[in-house]
Amino acid sequence: MQLKVPEHQVAGHIAKDGKPGPLVDDKGRFFKPVQEGSRGENEVKFYESFSSNTKVPDHIRRYFPVYHGTQAVEGSDGAAMIVLENLLSEYSKPSVMDVKMGSRTWYPDASEEYIQKCLKKDMGTTTVSSGFRISGFEVYDHKESSFWKPERKLLRGLNVDGARLALRKFVSSNSLSDIDSKPDSAFVSSVYGGSNGILTQLLELKTWFENQTLYHFNSCSILMVYENESMLKGGDDDDDARPQVKLVDFAHTLDGNDVIDHNFLGGLCSFINFIRDILQSPDESAET
Amino acid sequence: MLKVPEHQVAGHIARDGKLGPLVDDEGRFFKPLQGDSRGEHEAKFYDSFSSNKKVPDHIHRYFPVYHGTQLVEASDGSGKLPHLVLEDVVSGYSNPSVMDVKIGSRTWYPDVSEEYFKKCIKKDRDTTTVSLGFRVSGFKIFDHQELSFWRPEKKLVLGFNADGARSALRKFVSSNSSADSNSIPNCAFASEVYGGILTQLLELKAWFETQTLNHFNSCSILMVYENESILMKGGDDAQALLRAQVKLVDFAHVLEGNGVIDHNFLGGLCSFIKFIKDILQSLDERDDETDTSQLENGN
């Protein structure tokens, strides 16, 4: 089995200092190290429960990575890895964005230390103000024929306007590395809009979240992916973009206990509004 | 003549020489503007909101009508103080049952003082605010048998967990609440009261999904219904007589939305809606069971 480091990680853990990071194979699978302590156990527990939970409607399953159990993998010192569907394997030049949902990333049963750490981060980012924060993103730049991603430091300091700008840059084709250039929002309607677009998918998720009391997706992210390869080659086929929404990172997901995940839902509604605003005013100057 | 309102279930009470709201006999409610800037802040909100054309008419009905400010003799004998003059939302009722529910998974907000933040977050974590996205602040129910009001102690209410909140919501629409506290709430008025309330909450929810005008920090939803004639009459008139009303109250901490929706309030509101829906659904299930057993008994 040929394993290598994934090319398009935009957030989360990477292989560093001898600690294993995620790996991918050439058969469309993604290997995620089981995290230390309760987080790793929790994530496995979630995937085990979710994959066999008959209360989850079929049309909602598509928003979650397919789970293929756990496996010990060579080169990771026999450490267990969670085997998942590689969400990007069907894309040749994927643009990817990771958005952490919820106006708080902590939760009542967490340790005091963890709560304080989360609170600080939440207050210093758009999490508290907007109900979500952009953890990272990467866009294929046609001009440069390479991928562009902003520095992590820049992302942390993003305020509400910065988040809006990032969401526009994500679907733009003009020079992304030039901070002063106004994003052209070239792919707004083919990625965010349309009957199979990001907004439609988010609205489907929202409906489910208004009623589901199965899980609380603390600190969970929504991943947005789309194919950037054929975009500039023209053609009206919106399917070329194949925008996808996926929920990822379930280390802190817990039982819902008959209460809806109001934290995730509030953030999701806010995020939906940001996307809608961009769709309704493709010309950025309309927002000033 | 101004007097102490009879149906306050939360907030300051004008009693024993304390400063609190007053009502007149013309349906007006006088809320003293507190010494700190909160009172002025609330007045400013009412001022701008009541004339804000961006707020649809069907949403204005969820807010108390604003009648400006007025100098009025304060309830604590401290002389004439400026008061907010509002519609008394319970003045049309003779024996209203009232519940105050503070909406949102946090009552603090960015840029508050460290002291206020600590006070809020402690209370949020000690109550159902963090876990459920709302907390019951207080309620009272009119009891037909006793012809009097019953209300739980504030301490009990603030100590509610999820089950306590659920139980309170059931008790609120029951006719056997003040009797033996261990009796199961009969939810006698649940379908008429919560049916009407649910429709209103869903209307509010739709507005909150897109409105970016204000963030309603620490704001409450007041649920009011008339308990008087429910058991005497019934049928189609029941809903009209019950006049179950939803009102938003307490705007001392409202801020501008700055282009972002009030996701804190919205999340809590959705959670509250689910609780109401669950109660309504359990009634359906209970009725189905009764029907089935009646069939089985050859009825």
Automatic annotation (TrEMBL), chain A:
GO cellular component, one term: pollen tube
GO BP annotations listed: pollen development; pollen tube guidance; seed development
Superkingdom of the source species: Eukaryota
Enzyme Commission code(s) on record: 2.7.1.140, 2.7.1.151
Catalytic activity as recorded in UniProt: 1D-myo-inositol 1,3,4,6-tetrakisphosphate + ATP = 1D-myo-inositol 1,3,4,5,6-pentakisphosphate + ADP + H(+); 1D-myo-inositol 1,4,5-trisphosphate + 2 ATP = 1D-myo-inositol 1,3,4,5,6-pentakisphosphate + 2 ADP + 2 H(+)
Localization per Swiss-Prot or TrEMBL: Nucleus
GO molecular function: ATP binding; inositol-1,2,3,4,6-pentakisphosphate 5-kinase activity; inositol-1,4,5,6-tetrakisphosphate 3-kinase activity; inositol-1,4,5-trisphosphate 6-kinase activity
Keywords: ATP-binding, Kinase, Nucleotide-binding, Nucleus, Transferase
Protein's UniProt keywords contain NAD: no
InterPro entries listed in its UniProt record: IPK, IPK_sf
Region (Disordered): 1-22
Coiled-coil zones: none
Function noted in UniProt: Inositol phosphate kinase with a broad substrate specificity.
Protein family according to the UniProt entry: Belongs to the inositol phosphokinase (IPK) family.
Name of the protein this chain belongs to: Inositol polyphosphate multikinase
Organism: Cardamine amara subsp. amara
TrEMBL record, chain B:
InterPro entries: IPK (IPR005522), IPK_sf (IPR038286)
Catalytic activity annotation: 1D-myo-inositol 1,4,5-trisphosphate + 2 ATP = 1D-myo-inositol 1,3,4,5,6-pentakisphosphate + 2 ADP + 2 H(+); 1D-myo-inositol 1,3,4,6-tetrakisphosphate + ATP = 1D-myo-inositol 1,3,4,5,6-pentakisphosphate + ADP + H(+)
Gene3D superfamilies, per the entry: Inositol polyphosphate kinase
Enzyme's top EC category: transferase
Enzyme Commission numbers on file: 2.7.1.140, 2.7.1.151
Keyword line: ATP-binding, Kinase, Nucleotide-binding, Transferase
SUPFAM superfamilies assigned to the protein according to its UniProt record, in alphabetical order: SAICAR synthase-like
Example of a GO MF term: kinase activity
Family membership: Belongs to the inositol phosphokinase (IPK) family.
Function: Inositol phosphate kinase with a broad substrate specificity.
Protein name stated in the entry: Inositol polyphosphate multikinase
